[in-house]
Amino acid sequence: MKQVNGVDIEKLSETMNAIRGNPDIAKFNFRATNKWLGGGHNRTTINEFDGACSMHNRAISFVIDEDEPPVLLGQDQGANPVEYALTALAGCLTTSLVYHASAMGIKIDEVESTLEGNLDIRGFLGLSEGIRNGYNGIQVAFKIKSDAPKEQLQELVDIAKKRSPVFDIVSNPTPISVRLDN
Amino acid sequence: MKQVNGVDIEKLSETMNAIRGNPDIAKFNFRATNKWLGGGHNRTTINEFDGACSMHNRAISFVIDEDEPPVLLGQDQGANPVEYALTALAGCLTTSLVYHASAMGIKIDEVESTLEGNLDIRGFLGLSEGIRNGYNGIQVAFKIKSDAPKEQLQELVDIAKKRSPVFDIVSNPTPISVRLDN
Hints:
Strand order of the largest sheet of chain A: 6-5-3-4-7
Order of helices and strands of chain A: EEHEEEEEHEHEHHE
Shape of chain A: globular
Distance between the termini of chain A: 50 Å
CATH architecture of one domain in chain A: 2-Layer Sandwich
Largest sheet of chain A: 5 strands, antiparallel
Oligomer: homodimer
Helix content of chain A: 25-40%
Radius of gyration of chain A: 19 Å
Structural class of chain A: alpha+beta
CATH topology of one domain in chain A: GMP Synthetase, Chain A, domain 3
C-alpha cells in the first residue's frame, strides 16, 4: 500500500481505472434520517449508503445533534444547521485538496481553515422579502504547511474549489424536492 | 414563558419586534475552524458567533469529525462532508417547520425526515467534465404527527422550504470566496 498524505494512492488509481471501465462504479447515494426532539433540537443519524455498485453499512451509526443557541431560542445542545453547512464545506474542501495533492504526489504537512458566513435572520423570520434566508456569502481562508512552493499550494486550493462536491452544492443551485409522507 | 413545541413564542415575538425597530439585531456571523488529521479525516470546531449585536461564546465547543468510508479511501471516523450537507439541510428544514408552526400556534407531536442525494464521483475525480461534483438532486420526505389537518401540515412543509436558510444555501447559488493565507 503506497500512501501519500494518508491517502492510498494505489487504491485511488485503481478506483479511477475501474470507473473508466464502468462508470456505474462512480454512482453514490448518501442518506440521512432526522428526528425532532423539541424546540430547536433535532438529531440526524447517518449510516448506510450505496456506492461502487454495492450497499455499505457502518459498524456504528453517526449520531449528530443540532440545536440553536439561546439567542435563537434553543439550548445549545449541538451546533446549528447553518454551522453544519460550514462544517460540510470545510471538510469537503480539505479532503478535495488533500486527495488531489496525493494524486499529484505533493506531500502536505498541515491544513487548517477558518470559515465564516453572514446571515440576516429577517429572511428566515419572513420580515423582509428582499433578504435571502441563507448566507449572503461565505469566506474560507486556508493555511497549508508543505515544502511545496506557494504557487503549487495556490493551485491545490483552486483544484479544491473546482472539485469539491460541497463547494458545488453550495455555490451552484442543487435541486431539492420536499414531500410530506403522512 | 409561553412555549409551543418547546419554542418560547413570547421571546420569538419580542425578537421580531426588536428587529422591526433595529434591523441590525437580525445580523449574524457564524464561524467554523477545521484541521486536517490525515487522509480523509478532518475535524471542525464550532463555538463563537456574532448575532443580535453581540458576541456569543458557548461553554463547550462543538467538535465534529469528518472522514470518508473505506470505499472512498477513508476510515469511517465520522460522517463524510456530503452527509453533513444532508445533516444541515435536515436540521434546518425541521427547525424552520417547528418554529413557524409555533409562531402560528400549531402544536406538533413528532417530526421525522429521511433525506437522500445522488452523486457521481466522476465530477470530484475530474474524470468527466459534463458531470457536476455535488448532488444532482436531493429528496426529502417528512412524516409529521399532529392533530392539525393534513392541509395545514403541507402548508408547514411549504413554509419550511420557503424560510429555511440551508434550503436557500443549497438550492440557490451562495457566493464562496476561498483564499490561501500562507
